[in-house]
Amino acid sequence: MQKFGGSSLADAAGVIRAAERIAKTREEGFRVVAVVSAMGDTTDDLCDLAAEVSTRPLPGDLDALLSIGELVSSALLAIALADLGQVPRTFTGSAAGFITDNIHGKAHITDVRPGRVRTSLARGEVPIVAGFQGRTKKRRKITTLGRGGSDLTAVALAAALGAGICEIYTDVDGVYTADPRVVPTARKLDVLSSEEMLEFAASGCKVLHLRCVEYARRFGIPIHVRSSFVPEAGTLILPGLDRGALRQPAGEQPVVTAVAGVNSASKIIVVGIPDEPDSISRIFQVLSRSGANVQTVVQTPAGTGSRRSDVALILPAAQAAQALSVLNAAKGAIGFQGLQHDSEMGRVSVTGLGMRSSPEIFCTFLKALSDADVGLDLVDISETCLGAVTPTDRLADAERAVRLAFGMATADGAAVTGRMGTLVPAGGRPVGTWIAISGNDRRPVARGDRAVARHF
């Protein structure tokens, strides 16, 4: 799988360069499927044009307009490939088998049916797929996947076809420790895990879109981010051996793999620290001496008009005594007014894929706890985990309510393990998948395994 971004196809020279890259890869004995973005700033230009015509274009009409950009790229690439003696065949997102929900402008993939693309490959052709787009299952309306959608198209199609790797060609030669345009000393990273790249993407790294990385991790697809302009290797993003694809249907719906409760947490509130830039850093300099593993930090103003704030820390209960001791000893140096400690805290958490990018997961989690009348203290969320701090005496109720909400327990409280089901929040619309893990049920699944996706 080779995906060429808008910067790689910004002009005729870029299109010819992409065609030569594809032809060279085929000469080396590999079959290639190409996914293309719109050329340069085409999508932005179409958005601007639509805004000149109407201040309130219908989302479906706007998607139909924006999908044209990728069709131009795919047609031009086909012309260039034909000149090189290749046999190209172009596909819209719909023709390539991309089925999405009906959220125009930011649709999510619900299934991929690549039969036509597979047939084209078998004929010795070079399939060229327009990225960024798909169609709804009902009424077959054109949808777009949002910014970065062509990366997502490439990874999803790679998973559906059992591709060995997905190469993302762009205007940078890999993923760096920082933006090299801002930090000249930034270093290129040769290899990253998918988990590390998830955090990079969530923290603002624009090389790959968050949803693209989530999908690759879900199905165990290696990604190679590399430059269209130089032949050198870029950055490999690899799923770990224990992070391979779970047995699940195709699509980018969120997947909940576990619900857990831990009753050994403590909360320390550092009351009235000076409202100065280095106050929190002084707290953590002190805590580092105690070896405290702080899991959550929340800073709130001490009161209206106050020039002080309170900082709440969640850490393992076994580390609380030493943390309190070193903080008390440094009270004068830090300048805070007092300490509050609550050792009767627990934490209920949901782990899986798509935790941050799926609002339905967050809503289902909070509603489950609200319906169970479980009070929340602090809530934290990452790409793979959503957690909330609760009173210890309500932790069992919280865990039971969340398991029930995600279909991982029955109404009588019995756990459901070693099974897979559909995630249906209170609204009644299926939004994802839950997978109850038991024993060694979770295992890496080789790409191309029919168990990975139902359309294989």
From TrEMBL:
Coiled coil: none annotated. Keywords: Amino-acid biosynthesis, ATP-binding, Diaminopimelate biosynthesis, Kinase, Lysine biosynthesis, Nucleotide-binding, Transferase. Its EC number is 2.7.2.4. It comes from the Bacteria. Pathway: Amino-acid biosynthesis; L-methionine biosynthesis via de novo pathway; L-homoserine from L-aspartate: step 1/3; Amino-acid biosynthesis; L-threonine biosynthesis; L-threonine from L-aspartate: step 1/5; Amino-acid biosynthesis; L-lysine biosynthesis via DAP pathway; (S)-tetrahydrodipicolinate from L-aspartate: step 1/4. It catalyses: L-aspartate + ATP = 4-phospho-L-aspartate + ADP. GO terms for molecular function: kinase activity. CDD domains: AAK_AKii-LysC-BS. InterPro entries: AceGlu_kinase-like_sf, ACT-like_dom_sf, ACT_dom, AKii-LysC-BS, Asp/Glu/Uridylate_kinase, Asp_kin_monofn, Asp_kinase, Aspartate_kinase_CS. Residues 268-341 form the ACT domain. Pfam families: AA_kinase. Signal peptide: none annotated. Gene3D superfamilies: Acetylglutamate kinase-like, VC0802-like. Catalyzes the phosphorylation of the beta-carboxyl group of aspartic acid with ATP to yield 4-phospho-L-aspartate, which is involved in the branched biosynthetic pathway leading to the biosynthesis of amino acids lysine, threonine, isoleucine and methionine. Belongs to the aspartokinase family. This is Aspartokinase. It comes from Arthrobacter humicola.
